[in-house]
Amino acid sequence: MKITKKNSKGLKREFNIVISAKEIEDKINKKLSEIALTARIPGFRPGKIPTSILKARIGKEVRGEILQTSIDEASKKAIQDENLKPVMKPSIDIEKYDEGSDLKALLSLEIMPIIKHIDLSKIKLEKFIAKVSDKDVNEALDRIAKQNQQTQPLKKARKSKLGDTLVIDFEGKMNNVAFDGGTGKGHHLALGSNSFIPGFEEGLVGLNVNEEKKLKLSFPKDYGMEKLAGKKVTFDVKIKEIREPVPVKYDENFAKNLGMPSMKDLKKAISDQISNEHSNVTRSKLKLQLLDILNKKYNFDLPEGMVEQEYISVCNSLNKNKTDPKNDNKENNTKPDEKMSKDEKEDAKNIAQRRVKLGLLMGDIGRNNNIDVSEEEIKQAVMMEAQKYPGQEKQVLEYYEKNKEASQNLAGPLFEEKVFDFICEMSEIKEKTVSVEDLYKEEGEGKKKLTKKQK
Description:
Alpha-Beta Plaits; Chitinase A, domain 3; 4-stranded antiparallel sheet
């Protein structure tokens, strides 16, 4: 085996690997001899099978296995001898090989960039905090009351108006033929809920009980059912009853109907929920602020392969017209950025570079400070993931049990959060009380054109 360094430019490393024909044949013969000790072939006693017979039967498979093992060993040796830290799986290109001749291959990889020491104590962050006010709680109470609004028959006859709940019979037709899902009897419809297609609820305003009306409407072009999308239809509707909202009383009965012992407990639960939501936003903005600082403060060479891989991922997420929904099962040979403009490509490139840089920075900080994710933490993450699918917890747990790689993928976000917490402990953080509006205001360098995943 001969390993020669070919290229050492920037973060790229290339090595020529030559494995002699003799070495390959010796390994093949040795492997066949080992197999011969236990192999069974009719007409031969165990352990007495000639190597030539075995080579004729399984020589091709053994050769392929030996070649792969030899290449892996050579690659590992090249990396260890040079004390390299690859950022991605190295690539192997077999340049020349014929049975009975030397194998020549090219090993290509990119190594971890040199990241200068990061003094976390010099990082200054501003933590925005919004307090929960009585107004916030009362507004939430009003929303809850509206969601659980009770209705009652009109005490005095009048025409329907927005806010009423109508009990209706209706039949929808397209080209004078009733279509599936377009018919209902005794359906309760809250006017103003926008639960029907545009024009339906508006067309039932100003009607009396027992009045009938024909509505001529069109389904939206982006309607979920293709056979109805953009189609013109009619609805024959009869008003069976008009009901009005029952005034809500914020008393103990209201709280108990929502499963709470008292109004005091209900308000506290609402306050705690709002506070938790604020805390999540506070943490997200603090994290984004930190990432913006790291992105501006530290610069180093980025592995081109990682950036290219991330660029493809970003393009796939930003390019909404990447595939045609009608051709989901057809092979798509278009490039990820083929339908993107020059500006969109530039944005995708910037996002990819930011992701790679910050990923390497966070990883470096974690490694240098012995931060890792334990098996127990991964198990807890799997349990939390399973809880997101009520009724399917067992299947989810079985999936992660059988797919260790999927379980390990949960470790990435856990590691990032632990590194973030560590940086916050080491850095200087100043708290600032702000309004709810300011807390939820979108701002920051990393926010621009980034989804939650991309941040």
